[in-house]
Design a protein that fits this description.
21% helix; alpha/beta; binds fe (ii) ion; 6-stranded mixed beta sheet; 12 strands; 7 helices
Length: 285
């Protein structure tokens, strides 16, 4: 069985006191109307970010293929059923070929995944709607239930799995969250050597290893763009490597996500949808 140790991370650990403090603040913010506030400011609708990515090995016939990337929905105290309706509407209006969700559907419990299922079930794209889990989605170890409920509504989870698109001209690889990898499966097992591949990996720290394994494009979330992106405060969110990181091995796109943790606030890190248009290399004349 082939597993890649570079695609594993130790979970971030917080003290009980710190977690209790964050929870108390969150409950207070929710009681003061945090959900309505967040919806009005961030989700009505969320901003749209546009990216064009030259993808080595992309077939000329797939030039212009578009993906809308949603991440970090964080159903929970500040986001419930109906709150994603405008984001879904805007996504569908872009008429993407493919829609992807890069994890953190929930905040505290698996049940929260059902709250947003009706909204997400309205997503439409000819190549499908594909998702991966984020570190928050393993609460209660109910991934199988989430996966089957979402599959019944047209959303396919890729859990260390790969799916061919466009008759195998492009592969989509979905990783389990790097903090949860249990080495059960090699995500690349079905991918032919040299295939043009895109990886969905919740944590952007996986990008270098995924580029090394041939994924020219990696789509991530997790960082919330710092969420409250101010000195001294952004350190509470995972480090944001940048919205887009181009290296010789490939391109990493990091979504700032749609939901919020701790407080229903975003500063210099607005909630966003990301539309990515793939560009095929020009052939030599
Ligand atoms: Fe998140
Ligand atoms: Fe996360």
């Amino acid at each position: 069985m082939s597993t890649d140790r570079s695609l594993r991370l130790e979970p971030r650990r917080f003290s009980r006191a710190r977690l209790a403090f964050f929870r108390a603040i969150e409950q207070l913010a929710a009681a003061l109307g945090g959900r309505a506030f967040y919806r009005a400011l961030q989700l009505s609708p969320p901003r749209l970010r546009e990216e064009r990515v030259l993808l080595e090995g992309l077939a000329a016939r797939l030039d212009g293929l578009s993906i809308v990337h949603l991440s970090d929905l964080h159903a929970g105290p500040f986001l419930r059923g109906g709150d994603l309706a405008r984001a879904v509407e805007r996504t569908n209006a872009l008429r993407p070929d493919l829609i992807v969700l890069t994890g953190d559907l929930v905040t505290h419990a698996a049940e929260e995944a059902w709250w947003i299922l009706e909204d997400l079930a309205a997503l439409r794209a000819p190549l499908g709607v594909c998702a991966v889990f984020g570190n928050h989605d393993y609460h209660g170890r109910r991934e199988r239930e989430i996966r089957s409920a979402y599959a019944a509504r047209g959303i396919e989870f890729l859990c260390d799995e790969a799916r061919p698109l466009c008759d195998g001209a492009l592969w989509l690889i979905g990783l389990e969250d790097l903090e949860e990898k249990r080495g059960a499966r090699d995500a690349f097992a079905r991918v032919p050597p040299g295939a043009c591949a895109i990886a969905l990996c919740h944590n952007p720290k996986g990008a270098p290893a995924l580029h090394a394994r041939g994924c020219a494009l990696v789509l991530s979330g997790h960082t919330h763009g710092g969420q409250i992106n101010l000195p001294g405060i952004r350190r509470f969110a995972p480090a944001h490597p940048g919205d887009r990181v181009d290296t010789p091995g490939g391109t990493l796109i990091v979504s700032r996500g749609l939901g919020a943790l701790g407080l229903p606030l975003r500063v210099r890190a607005a909630a966003e949808l990301v539309r990515i248009v793939l560009v095929a290399p020009r052939r030599a004349a």
